[in-house]
Amino acid sequence: MKVAVYNQEGKEAGDITLPKEIFEVPFNADLVHQVMISQTANARQVSAHTKNRGEVRGGGRKPWRQKGTGRARAGSTRGPIWKGGGVSGGPRNDKNYERTIPQKMRRKALFMVLSQKVKNNLLVVLDDMNMEGAKTKAMAQMFKKLPVASASRLVAYNNGDKKVFLAARNIAKTGVSETRNLNVVDLLDYKYVVITKDGIKEIEKVFITK
Q1: Domain 2-44+98-207 grouped into CATH 1.20.1560.10
Q2: Which NCBIfam families match (predicted)?
Q3: Residue 119, C-beta contacts closer than 8 angstroms, at least 6 positions apart
């Protein structure tokens, strides 16, 4: 499949043939959903935590004698019915939400989402992304000249090209990711994907030749 290649002025500067192994994969919504759920679950930070009666401080002394007071027997003030006591059934930070998805399934889902981007004309390929001085203003002006001007976009840059990252990270509705780290969640979070011709080769090198 061929797509147009743009320069940084927003004008067409030729075309490129995309590898069909990556950009012509039939879509399977169930697989993409499964991979997306597993990725978000693995990134989940479990911070909410309540102490049970064995973890709260104090309660070593029996509040009153066992018999003769007329009150219910009690052995500790750290039970869940006491003020300052432990919490029964509260959230715990030892809960594990991780899910394991085979690498082949993750890559297949990635290819499916990339294929959908191409099918819906949401993949913008540049001949180069040369940001002198890592200027955010220059990057924002480039976006205005491309089809991505009015929508969210994910900028995929090659490993080591930190100028692109520095120039694009503070622009509204813009995400930045190294090409080798592209994933289903990031692709679904943004409408457009902006990548260079070298970035296409990098995807092929990382995800196909290995």
Answers
A1: no
A2: rplD_bact
A3: none
